[in-house]
Amino acid sequence: MPELPEVETIARDLRGRLPGCVIERVWLSGKPLRLARPVDRRRIERAALGARIEAVRRRGKYLILDLSSGHALLIHLGMSGRLALERSAAPRQPHTHCVLALAGGHDLRFVDPRRFGLLTAYPGAALASSPELRALGPDPLTSEFTPAVLLAALRDTRGADVKTFLVDQRRVAGVGNIYASEALFLARIHPRRPAHSVSAARATRLHAAVREVLESAVQNRGTTLRDYVGPYGWEGENQEKLRVYMREGEPCPRCRARVRRLTQQARSTFYCPRCQR
DNA sequence: TAGAGCCTGCGG
DNA sequence: CCGCAGGCTCTA
Q: Which of the nucleotides in strand C have any atom less than 7 Å away from a protein CB atom?
């Protein structure tokens, strides 16, 4: 479910609330998450029990909680994951897999019906070189993401089309299915174009489009198409701003041609067949 | 670099 | 019943 803007929204909401909080208890459902791997209770407890939350960060689609123990919790929400900040007395939602009980009567709860998410912990010094974070490409909202970097990565790609390139986290960290379609529409690039055939001029447009689409989605607090909600249950507003995603058959906002859907890597892509080349 | 697989829920 | 869903990883 969540891509960069949704994870960034969650990080910002949590940042207003979690730093300074002490984790008093840890509860785990014991159900396996990503790759049918069970959450490692000892790892989580060693990192979190009795620790104070010092900072909340995001890297790509990952959330990071830096703790006073010197460890960090690493969280990925997969397709259906949510974090919920709720009173400890409030009933737990179905599919709750982790509860961090905070001093003062509130919980941070990890809820994930499909269990494609990930929850683990690393010593702070080992986090950046962890298997999860090691290979991530540049975060598109940082200064590391430049037109030249994007162009070089496109040129380095053999075979893959530009849409598949955009959702490859090793190339750009944080773009998923919604924002790939939206960025390609803004940049007027056809999703089936081979990545290495994207010209420098198009790469510059794509760079600006990726930034624009992600930044405005963050401003709009993310996209709620089905069930994305933030830590307080708030929905996003960005679904109203989507130009092509989930709009098959509707008129293109630029040229009025009908928006089409195609399938790439078993995922839907939406685009305008007239504007995008 | 395709395709399958991991899961549950929803809408047609 | 079927297909499909904001992700990622392992396989051939």
A: 4-10
pLDDT tens-place string over residues A100-131 = 999 999 999 999 999 999 999 999 999 999 99
Sheet with A62-67: strands ordered across: A53-59, A62-67, A71-76, A118-123
A60 Cβ contacts chain C strand, under 7 Å:
yes
CA distances from A46 to A40, A134, A137 (A): 10, 23, 29
Which chain B positions have some atom within 7 A of a protein CB?
1-10
Q: Clarify whether A194 is annotated catalytic.
A: no
pLDDT digits (tens, 9 = 90+) for A229-266: 999 999 999 999 999 999 999 999 999 999 999 999 99
Query: Can you name the residues that pair with A204 across neighbouring β-strands?
Result: none
Q: Which residue has the tokens 């993401």?
A: A145
Question: How much is the pTM?
Answer: 0.98
Query: Which residues 6+ apart lie within 8 Å of A89 measured at CB?
Result: A105
Half-sphere exposure for A247 (CA within 13 Å, toward CB): 21
